[in-house]
Design a protein that fits this description.
Blueprint lengths: L7 E12 L2 E12 L3 E5 L6 H8 L7 E6 L2 E2 L5 H11 E4 L11 H11 L4 H14 L15 H14 L4 E5 L7 H18 L2 E6 L2 H4 L4 E6 L2 E3 L1 E3 L10 E3 L4
Parallel strand pairs: 3-8, 3-9, 6-7, 7-8
Antiparallel strand pairs: 1-2, 1-4, 4-5, 9-10, 11-12
Helix pairs in contact: 3-4, 3-5, 4-5, 5-6
This protein binds adenosine-5'-triphosphate.
Length: 245
């Protein structure tokens, strides 16, 4: 058996997955280093979401292995995977997926409350992140009264407040305007770097990928060449893909 490298927080080998016969992943291997911001890029339908679902334990690949901190995820049962996702992972999707009955701060605190953290401590952690995302004054509002961009900030606060080891972000800015996009991503990547949180960020947007430390490119469910470029002056990291296999 091949043992995952020690410094990879997430390590995947030869992932294959198809959705009812439609190919999703065709043999993807990758490692994500501790504290790294990794962008997974590629055109629509290239397998980015399928890959993030497999890496985060939401989906068990039909073939291949996924390891988190040298623990196999692909062999875990549904309950252990759910516990892993709740305790160690954060998820930010393109849509915020908030609980409509809960207020802003309750939504942001939800993962902590589900873990059994006290109401007071969960509220404090959630409120701190809501403040940092400039939506502290909306803490008592419910999602339906907020703008899409404000709701998406709640989902970012929710992911960060839980202090996860890894945040998976699947096209987190797809529904936002350009200015909003940049601010939200910079807050996410800066906060992750300062707190040692690893981020796996799926995007088809080169500008978004440029905020990452490294880029892995997918095409038709397979990895294609990654080319590291020198950091541009206005980005924290930069990378680009050449779409040749
Ligand atoms: N639930 C599903 N049922 C059937 N086919 C699916 C399903 N999810 C994904 N696929 C197919 O698997 C392939 C990879 O899709 P996936 O969503 O992983 O790619 P993606 O790069 O994230 O695309 P996008 O940017 O559009 O979200 C596509 O051909 C897609 O149509």
């Amino acid at each position: 058996m091949v043992v995952p490298p020690d410094n990879d927080v997430i390590w995947a080998r030869s992932l294959h997955h198809s959705h009812n016969g439609s190919p999703g992943l065709g043999g993807v291997s990758l490692g994500v280093r501790d504290g790294e911001v990794l962008a997974v890029t590629g055109p629509r339908g290239s397998g980015k979401s399928t890959l993030l679902h497999c890496l985060s334990g939401q989906l068990v690949p039909q073939e291949g292995e996924v390891w988190f901190n040298s623990v196999p995820v692909h062999t875990m049962g549904p309950r252990l995977r759910e516990q892993l996702r709740r305790d160690r992972f954060g998820w930010i999707g393109a849509e915020p997926e908030l609980v409509p009955e809960l207020t802003t701060w309750e939504n942001a605190a939800l993962p902590l409350l589900l873990r059994g953290v006290s109401h007071r401590a969960a509220k404090k952690a959630a409120t701190e992140w809501l403040d940092r995302l400039d939506i502290g004054p909306l803490a008592k509002k419910r999602p339906h009264s907020l703008l899409q961009s404000q709701r998406q900030r709640i989902s970012v606060a929710r992911a960060l407040a839980a202090s996860p080891a890894v945040i998976f972000a699947d096209e987190p800015t797809a529904t936002l305007h350009r200015a909003e996009r940049s601010q939200l991503l910079r807050t996410l990547t800066t906060a992750a770097r300062s707190h040692g949180i690893t981020v796996v960020l799926a995007t088809h947007d080169a500008e978004v990928a440029a905020l990452a430390d490294r880029t892995v490119c997918l095409l038709d469910g397979r990895r294609v060449n990654t080319v590291a470029l020198p950091a541009a002056p206005d980005t924290e990291g930069a990378s680009a893909c050449s779409l040749s296999v």
